[in-house]
Design brief:
Elements: H1 3-11, H2 16-28, E1 46-53, E2 56-58, H3 64-74, E3 78-84, H4 88-98, H5 102-110, E4 116-120, E5 123-133, E6 146-155, E7 159-165, H6 172-179, H7 182-185, H8 189-222, H9 232-249, H10 253-261, H11 269-335, H12 350-371
Parallel strand pairs: 3-7
Antiparallel strand pairs: 1-2, 1-3, 4-5, 5-6, 6-7
Helix pairs in contact: 1-2, 4-5, 8-9, 8-11, 9-11, 10-11, 11-12
Length: about 375
């Protein structure tokens, strides 16, 4: 069967016009990530579409609309549809099938949303910011440390629709992990929502642990022997990347508290206890980010203090040498004046006395400055 035929069956887009539209979109969107075996080899934004009943995966039908109708008639199980960066045209039929709110649909397609949880009728819409640590050999003033993406989750009584934006945050391993725990998956769509939130927050902690190594390296360089010459741009870059991580982590606190405490029809009461655990992990991540921010401020202040001290030391050395040079300059300046009647001008030992006076005075000044640590 052709790729366009597969797309029509999975998305339920009937008719020649719909088929041509999806086939055209499929040719334009040939860059689907197929690195994980749980991903479906489809040429559109559809990553996977699976039906679950009593925690077990059941064969999906040929048509998404028929599959959803069978699930709703049976009153048991749910459908999990995964999408990656869908366009408006690709997501329109999905939104109609699951009766998704237009505002939520717009957020899911456009992305760049703040982490949040909203209720639209019987549907729960959650936005999570995903993060990924960018590996680099050496931290510079332009190094990218944190890369962000997004995962949007629509949760209903009998469906879950996940929309992923970005190059990371694949849900394939998460899906396999849930399928290995049918008791948890049997709790319904809210189990998928919890698994997504748990994976996102765990990745926050992983990125924080990786970023700590960069912070430790910067701290070591600043307090090294030549720390005043360290590049302050690296500190500012870390602060910028930490701010990006903070924008992903901190706003998620209130939504997770709502999921853990507020009664919601689509969230199983047993799942709320799991959300409290995720909320605790998020609190740890928030506290670590705040601590890192304070630490970077302290490192930056210490670096600036070291630069000031180094400059002061340089100025003291310059001042000391200038004072030493001022002695021969003064003496030579006096005897360089063109007057006929000057004391000891025609004295036989005048030159030797002047040179000796200059030498003794310079040595005395040098010894005094050296004793006081100026040289």
């Amino acid at each position: 069967m052709t790729m366009a035929g597969n797309l029509r069956k999975v998305t339920g887009l009937g008719g020649v016009g719909g088929l041509r539209r999806v086939a055209r979109l499929a040719r334009r969107r040939a860059r689907v990530d197929l690195s994980h075996p749980a991903r479906s080899p489809l040429g559109s934004s559809v990553v996977n579409c699976v039906t679950y009943r009593e925690g077990a995966r059941v064969p999906a039908g040929d048509d998404l609309a028929d599959t959803v109708e069978r699930v709703r008639k049976s009153g048991n199980g749910f459908v999990w549809l995964g999408l990656h960066e869908p366009t408006n045209a690709e997501f329109a039929d999905v939104a109609d099938l699951f009766d998704l709110h237009p505002l939520a649909v717009e957020d899911a397609v456009e992305a760049h949303q703040r982490p949040k949880v909203e209720r639209y009728g019987e549907t729960l819409f959650a936005v999570f910011k995903t993060v990924c640590y960018v590996e680099h050999e050496q931290l510079t003033a332009t190094s990218e440390v944190v890369d962000t993406g997004e995962i949007m989750v629509f949760v209903g009584q009998d469906f879950v629709v996940t929309v992923r934006h970005g190059r990371h945050g694949s849900l394939g391993p998460l899906r396999e992990g849930l399928e290995a725990d049918p008791d948890q998956l049997a709790k319904g769509p809210s189990a998928v929502l919890h698994a997504v939130a748990d994976q996102v927050v765990d990745e926050y902690l992983n990125v924080i642990d990786a970023a700590q190594m960069d912070i430790d390296q910067v701290e070591t360089d600043v307090f090294a022997e030549n720390g005043a010459r360290a590049d302050p741009g690296r500190i500012y870059q870390l602060k910028r990347e930490l701010l990006e991580l903070k924008r992903a982590v901190v706003p998620l606190s209130r939504p997770l508290q709502d999921l853990a405490a507020r009664p919601m029809r689509v969230v199983d009461p047993e799942i709320q206890a799991y959300f409290r655990d995720v909320s605790d992990h998020l609190l740890r991540a928030t506290e670590q980010i705040a601590a890192f921010d304070e630490l970077l401020n302290s490192i930056l202040q210490a670096h600036l203090a070291q630069v000031t001290v180094a400059q002061n030391e340089d100025m003291r050395k310059i001042t000391a040498w200038a004072a030493i040079v001022a002695v021969p300059t003064m003496i030579c300046g006096v005897y360089g004046m063109n007057f006929d009647h000057m004391p000891e001008l025609h004295w036989k030992y005048g030159y030797g006395m002047a040179v000796g006076l200059i030498t003794v005075a310079c040595l005395a000044l040098y010894r005094g400055f050296r004793r006081n640590g100026w040289l």
